[in-house]
Amino acid sequence: MPNASARPKNGRRSRRRRREDPARNELVSSSLESAQQCLFNQDYGTAFVHYLLVLNLAPMFKDFAKDSFRFTLFKWTEELDSVGRIQDLFDCYEQALELFPADEVILNSMGEHLFRMGFRDEAAGHFHKALKLRPDYPEARENFYRVANWLVERWHFLMLNDHGRNRKYQQAIQKAVQSGCNTVLDIGTGTGILGMCAKKAGAAEVYACELSKTMYELACEVLAANGMDGSIKILHMKSLEMEVPKDIPHKVSLVVTETVDAGLFGEGIIESLIHAWHHLLLPPQQTGVPARRPINSATGRVIPAGATVFGMAVESAEIRRHHRLCVSEVGSLSMSAAGELHSPVSCSSEPDDSMEPYTTERLSRLPGGYKSLTEPFTALDIDFNNVQELEGLSSREVRRIHLPVTQEGELDALAVWFQLHLDEESSLSTGPQEDTCWEQAIYPVHTFFLKPRDELIVEVSCRDAYLRLCSVAVLRDGREIRLDKRLDSQHCENPVSNPNPEAELCSALACLKTDQNQTKDYSMLECSEMALLNNHDYHKSFCSALTKLISQLKVKWQNQERRSGDQLDCSDLFYVLDVSEGFSLLSLIAASRGHVKAYSSVEKKKQQEVLKRLARSNNIPEDHLEFWLNHVEDEQGMLQRPSREKLWSAIILDCVETCGLIRQKLMEKASLARCLLEEGGSIFPAKIVVHGMLVESDTLLLESAVQGQEPTLGFNIAPFINQFTVPVHVFLDFSTLECRHLSESAELFVLDLMNATANYTDREVKVRATSGGRITAIPFWYHIYLDQDISVSTFSQNSHWKQAAVVLQQPLEVQAGDWVCLTVKLHKSTISMTSQRQKELGEK
Ligand code: 44T
């Protein structure tokens, strides 16, 4: 590959010299010819090098060769990708962008590679640039929408729309500045709002830092728009890397921050504050020593001043089905041999790195609700102005808390929230009862049925700067029942004080033994995969549809044999391919139908083991289950014939993502799959019908964009952050969304996966408003038809899918009886909608 940096700059004089240089011209034209020849021969690597040479030597060919160059680049990088030459791949893109820095197609394509490699921030930057260059470029727009949620998380909108929170922070900052905190650092400034509050309150010097590149750039725009770019110094870095005087000239008297997540410590506030106290803040005010000088003149402090964390034991079927296997049979397969299946969120006393200590939910919006089994208890109190206390957190002794059970029920989780004490007077709460938008942290625990006179023993500790909560035991009738899974078996049910040390030793050994077995058969599933296993209807439907298809094919085969006079060959099998993403039992369910050789796309070794164990225990011959990805070399080859002389009887496509969107490239996969089917074979699903409903929901608006015309605390922020608004809200729980239904549910679109001639033009659908109101959103979901009669809905009680909703840019006022015309578009598996009122259509 030529070294791009060694190329001469193309100044005017050198260009003229080049044109006059016959040897150079000769080289350019022969290279151009070679490039074209190599392209024709599909030798993309060499073609690419030739094009690079030509275009660097003779930029005037850029217009002429642009399309071929792009084509070569895409083909060559595809090859590099398939053989894992990632560095080379990105080098090629960089060289291409040096030649065509404003080429939106190259930018977008590089973004796609970056995204696939997990560089989301960078990927998003490329999509954003491509979109700015060509706002009507649909590929870049769709890609941008897919990543916008990661770049600028949706809570930014909630936060900026939370006037109560904004005002409380503003007042606390104002008070601190007016009482003498003159130099301020905003850690994790986001849009810059807290820093701007400090400046507006009169602080002499304001600094801010932000680690996310996107947020940093956004904050720069916001500061400039508010005329504060000269007076607030913003740094693109993590506060932990900041030093005095390198980054800020001296220590500050106030740190303001809201780097807290639902579990309080998840954004690293403890570590940031310890570092800030040692390196960035003036010493704290001595407690107990009366201040002689004006307070805070040479001392430092933090807003928020501290926090109190609360916890409560809850029952929730919704939490349970996402973290525990709740069924003993899945689609007629017995699950008893599955071994231990865990979600990645665990309260294990020895958590490993792959585990998260908590997940988050809004308890008030949990489908099916929740039941409190104990009163809320104080889990922790922390003073952010006391560095010794912050440092001591990790070494604090594990605290055991005894909680009287107040209501009987299944113990599923410990829910956690907190009060953030901004100063002595003012605080914010993230509690489930409050009228706030904040989620609670959920620590799923080992399920146990609690009775009213029980006492639940919870352990609270702080490890790796995370708060950890674990329910360890239940006190019932004077006996302590251990809840840790590892000590869960019968032998481990110890009386509170075991008078017999020998018996204690025996039971400890017994536990050790179980422990070993469990480690062996232990496998982790994503929460959505766990919920999928628990989705009885889904598996039952697949089971029926597969049984039906196979019996139809059997009849067909038998008829053919009768006609041809051949004997039925018992070794002839039906071939079924399951290309579901992640863990899926569908291949096994297919294999259990008899006369089926099934191919699973499960990739993880541990999960393959689970399937093998289940096959054995369900009497499925070992050679009737294969792992497809062990056979194919690369993902591109995912859809192939089972073998040279065979075709598939069924191909199972995983068509909807958990978030509620249709999977990318579904239609391409379906058309490929159709070609690989034997006659009479089928793709599952055969058809997808999109359903939707008109609703009025302020909640959805608040989570989608900063609302209203009023500036936020007097600052101009909304237009900047709202650039990251996306038209489709994902991961929606439509069943618990606060909203008014303004229509019945309606069929919006049909995707016919079995039909090769289906033509997906825009579709106009008329929906009648059943009540008057403002349509702000159109939640949508899918009826997935496995065949003509059997379907599953992605909006059902046990669904492992969430729903999605189109959020309208402008709410649409309607009256009962009005007709609304929706234009539904499908572009590359992405559904979009626009709406219009059609009063004049009247009743028909
Ligand atoms: N919390 C709201 C907002 N960052 C989440 O890159 C508050 C949520 C909330 N930058 C319950 C209650 C509430 N140095 O942009 C992000 C992040 C950045 C840093 C520089 C650092 N050490 C950090 C750490 C984080 O700060 C921004 C905000 S952090 C996420 C805040 C009532 N649930």
Can you walk through the features of this model?
The protein has 23 helices and 36 strands. Helix 6 (104-116) runs antiparallel to helix 7 (120-133). Helix content is 33%, strand content 25%. Strand 1, helix 11 and strand 2 form a beta-alpha-beta unit. The chain is globular and about 100 Å long. The termini are far apart. With 844 residues, the protein is α/β, with parallel strands linked by helices. The strands form nine sheets. Strands 6, 10, 11, 12, 14, 15 and 16 form a seven-stranded antiparallel sheet that branches. Strands 26, 28, 30, 32, 33 and 34 form a six-stranded antiparallel sheet that branches. Strands 3-2-1-4-5 form a five-stranded parallel sheet, with helices on both faces. It folds into five domains: 23-154, Tetratricopeptide repeat domain (Serine Threonine Protein Phosphatase 5, Tetratricopeptide repeat, Alpha Horseshoe), CATH 1.25.40.10; 180-284 and 298-303, Rossmann fold (3-Layer(aba) Sandwich); 306-326 and 338-482, Hnrnp arginine n-methyltransferase1 (Distorted Sandwich); 535-559 and 571-683, 3-Layer(aba) Sandwich (Rossmann fold); 688-697 and 739-838, Distorted Sandwich (Hnrnp arginine n-methyltransferase1). The structure holds ligand 44T.
Strand and helix layout:
Layout: H1 12-20, H2 22-40, H3 44-57, H4 62-82, H5 86-99, H6 104-116, H7 120-133, H8 138-151, H9 155-161, H10 163-178, E1 183-187, H11 193-200, E2 205-209, H12 213-225, E3 232-235, E4 254-257, H13 269-279, E5 301-303, E6 306-315, H14 317-323, E7 329-330, E8 333-334, E9 340-342, E10 359-361, E11 371-372, E12 377-383, H15 387-392, E13 399-404, E14 409-421, E15 427-429, E16 440-450, E17 455-463, E18 466-476, E19 479-482, H16 501-520, E20 522-524, H17 527-533, H18 536-564, E21 574-578, H19 586-591, E22 596-600, H20 605-617, E23 625-627, E24 648-652, H21 666-675, E25 677-684, E26 687-692, E27 695-696, H22 698-702, H23 718-721, E28 728-732, E29 740-741, E30 746-752, E31 763-768, E32 773-785, E33 791-793, E34 803-814, E35 819-827, E36 830-837
Parallel strand pairs: 1-2, 1-4, 2-3, 4-5, 9-20, 21-22, 21-24, 22-23, 24-25
Antiparallel strand pairs: 6-11, 6-12, 6-14, 7-8, 10-16, 13-17, 14-15, 14-16, 17-18, 18-19, 26-30, 26-32, 27-29, 28-34, 31-35, 32-33, 32-34, 35-36
Helix pairs in contact: 2-3, 3-4, 4-5, 6-7, 7-8, 10-11
